[in-house]
Give the backbone structure.
Amino acid sequence: AQKVTQAQTEISVVEKEDVTLDCVYETRDTTYYLFWYKQPPSGELVFLIRRNSFDEQNEISGRYSWNFQKSTSSFNFTITASQVVDSAVYFCALSGYNNNNDMRFGAGTRLTVKP
Amino acid sequence: DGGITQSPKYLFRKEGQNVTLSCEQNLNHDAMYWYRQDPGQGLRLIYYSQIVNDFQKGDIAEGYSVSREKKESFPLTVTSAQKNPTAFYLCASSTTGEGYEKLFFGSGTQLSVL
């Protein structure tokens, strides 16, 4: 069975601080995909990144970076120099190779960035 | 602009009543999904459809029903058999049913029981 754990329920930081959101996953598949989505107060989830299990390279996109480590089954997300607009709920998700129907979401981490 | 439209944004259900949540997409996506979000929990899959006139149950389909008569539309009915319907419902779509495709989401419907 696939499972995603986001142990941090809520995080609060002050603007310009760096913050890391943790994601640990479980799967028996050798090929799988990991995602991060952002849910702002408006409600819709917005795609941030997709990573397949064969690609362990870390990725940086502006102030966002992702650290994928298969050895620890983790896919952590770091926001550098956080801004108030980063306040949202962030979800980590795991999907099998064959279809999206078994996509599993973590419980989400609510990030509040205070001015 | 292409996207997914969910309506209404807020919905109230009376005891014993069936209610229908609308989901329309103009992204030309084949696959569509319904998720339920409860506070402090991740999204759970209710139903999904990979092609018109075909749909499959997800993890928590009991008390829900769907139809897929058109590619663009995937309405969800919350029936009276669903005893705990209060939740935030999200509709999503993707280009195919394969695992590497990202999901596009609507802005959700908050359903509450009167």
Observations:
- Chain A has no helices and twelve strands.
- Chain A touches chain B through 30 residues (CB under 8 Å).
- The mean pLDDT of chain A is 93.
- The first strand of chain A starts at residue 3 and ends at 5.
